[in-house]
Amino acid sequence: MSRAVGDPQTAAAGTRADRAVPGRRGRPRSAAADSAIIEAVLRLIEEGAAIGELSMERIAREAGVGKATVYRRWPGKHALMLDVMRSLDTPPPVLEGASVRDDLVALLEFLRRRGLAKRNSALLRTVVSHVQAHPELWAEYHETVVRARNEALLRVLRRGMASGEIRSDRDAETLADLFVGPMLARAILHEWRELPEGLAADIVDTVLEGVRPGP
């Protein structure tokens, strides 16, 4: 159940944390240490530790690094936990921009594949359940991860409204819920239901049929 040290997502998370502290001086960052620290947090959470129970000292000990190594990368546990959460996510797909339907399918296919990644999805839910008890962390997670994903979907829908492919007399955010709701329901609320190939296209085509402008 442990993530492989050196996973590119965790390494990328460390890079983001480094950029968050401008003007830093000293030795070059070690990607291996970044990954080991994030891996240590994930391992501790998987073993049942709550965020409130984790200290930077305990995380450093679990990662096999010195406490100073952790603090050189993250000024505190809040910043570290944000990168831990980001390490469990992947950026939305690059959209072609030529077809509203195809872009919507690509975004929902991204959600379908995340749902199939059982370990990542399960661990992300575990982390989120802890983070929800910390309002500042939860709010920043939404600002940095969830909002970016939602904005990508809203841009596609607004493009469809402007081109006449989607009716423009409805709220874009409500339409977004209609598209992602069925996929999220299967991926998160009803895990026993299958997420077959072609599901994203089926959902998009079904919803588009109802939101196209009338004759």
From TrEMBL:
InterPro entries: Homeodomain-like_sf, HTH-type_TetR-like_transc_reg, HTH_TetR, Tet_transcr_reg_TetR-rel_C_sf, TetR_C. Residues 1-28 are annotated as: Disordered. PROSITE patterns: HTH_TETR_2. Coiled coil: none annotated. Residues 55-74 bind DNA. Residues 31-92 form the HTH tetR-type domain. GO terms for molecular function: DNA-binding transcription factor activity; transcription cis-regulatory region binding. Keywords: DNA-binding, Transcription, Transcription regulation. Pfam families: TetR_C_11 (PF16859), TetR_N (PF00440). This is TetR family transcriptional regulator. It comes from Streptomyces gilvosporeus. The lineage of its organism: Bacteria, Bacillati, Actinomycetota, Actinomycetes, Kitasatosporales.
